[in-house]
């Protein structure tokens, strides 16, 4: 399985949290004694496999599994709407979610085709615990496959079938070195592999891991304060992890695209840049971020309908560095 936040990237982040002080909603200057994380020792390499490169868009088929608040739903759907600059964005307000995606577009397949230029939420369905509240990863794969084969969801070779689970649902390995994962399945009616993914709501299960820097781990040093989340800790944690997953799923959909290390536990386009969100990031400090004057919420990207989001750095192939949105 392809997972995010595996041990290889968890340790630097958790260790960082134990070291660096941070005050809520306030940008800090980087200490000269702290090394920048903008350049890492990871080198993302292309292994020759296909990417999601069709010219129109990467289509998201969203499954809301469990009970979600209205705020969580609207925050996440607004995130996907933000890939389209015409969807409720204030003119000339930069950087945006679409700006962030431009770095992913520099990833190309062996024919020179770039990753699709945008991401689009095509269809949403809901499910109130048909599999129960304690789920194995294999169940998610079979669940998605069944939805496609029974035509509840369409067959789409350039799509990502994204299962979001609510905060009361326990998914195998979630919070145990993983905030979500992407993988692929064979749909037998078409004999073609499709990409699916899972993201959990970290609000009550592991906010200090999967919603950092909007929540801190319980074992961190005293006196630290989490940053203020613009859309709520659970929603913003999910958005950060969705961004990480779709970046990896598009550039390494079948475990033979762009990655570094073991193909079963790879570092991908975003997971090669753990804990980096702004310029000047170092261990335990996410970097210089914008701060809302009224709410004191920290963010680095503007989105649809007045939303503000925090998006992770992406490994930039041309510079071999972690590129932050700006």
From TrEMBL:
Q: Please state the span of the N-terminal signal peptide per the UniProt entry.
A: 1-25
Q: Which Pfam families match?
A: Phi_1
Top-rank lineage group of the source organism: Eukaryota
Q: Where in the cell is it found?
A: Secreted, Extracellular space, Apoplast
Q: Which GO terms describe its cellular component?
A: apoplast
Q: What is its main location?
A: secreted
Which terms are listed as keywords in the entry? Apoplast, Secreted, Signal
Q: Which family does it belong to?
A: Belongs to the EXORDIUM family.
Question: Which lineage?
Answer: Eukaryota, Viridiplantae, Streptophyta, Embryophyta, Tracheophyta
Q: Which gene encodes it?
A: LOC115972071
- In its UniProt entry, the species of origin is given as Quercus lobata
InterPro entries hit by this protein:
EXORDIUM-like (IPR006766)
Q: Which named protein is this?
A: Protein EXORDIUM-like 2
